[in-house]
Predict the 3D structure of the following.
Amino acid sequence: MAERLQKILAARGVASRRAAEELVAAGRVSVNGVPARLGDKADPACDAITLDGRPLPPEQPAHTYLLLYKPSGYITSVSDPKGRRTVLDLVRGEIPPGGRLYPVGRLDYATSGVLLLTDDGELTNALLHPGREINKTYESAVIGEVTAAKLQKLAAGVDLADGRTAPAKVRKIRREGPKSAAKTVLELTIHEGRNRQVRRMLAAVGLEVFWLKRTSFAGLKLAGLKPGEYRRLTAAELASLLQYKAVKELK
Ligand code: URA
């Protein structure tokens, strides 16, 4: 659809609409190689628009999508009556004036790992809908050895106060720590999202958690981030997440 150039430039984050008008008026914007004049329209889907001879940056998503490596010791909430640090304290600079940003789901205070923050309520609802069965993968160091019987129980589903858990993928990935205080690191992939689910599952089979970290959420991974760091989603990650919005309403 053809739109005024200043609107297109502003939507790409190049300048405010007012400043974009000045760029057009100064002859710095061209459409298909021809310098544009104030008031000209173009269609970014089929016209080649340039500023000072360079293509415009890609379209800015309408919403903010941040992938945070939540460190332990932060509460997953927008505020805390007890005054504890919240995950929003780690992304303050990203919250537009008058705007909001909130976490998609929760990680416990002591749990670290992948946390998506956004202002896209529709996507949040789509990802948290219990029928959506989004995969979440966790790594947990538990105290001591883990028998094959315990792994099997975790995989088959364990009885919790709020009902039996759905089958999960579980495997041992390594041993950690000195012999006197050995730990086993497990990987668990679940698709339910019950409160403190992994800790309760591990406790139900008699395992004591030393640390718990979420390594993947809906395909988003921590690669390249250190605890407390965040980044914007890549175009490919965003496209893959937005598919969940497109899928028909679930009951
Ligand atoms: N399961 C838990 O027990 N804690 C979390 O933070 C996430 C999943």
In short: The longest strand covers residues 209-217. Residues 107-108, 111, 196-199, 212 surround uracil (CB under 6 Å). The domain at 65-131+219-246 is CATH 3.30.70.580 (Alpha-Beta Plaits). The chain has three domains: 3-55, 65-131+219-246, 135-217.
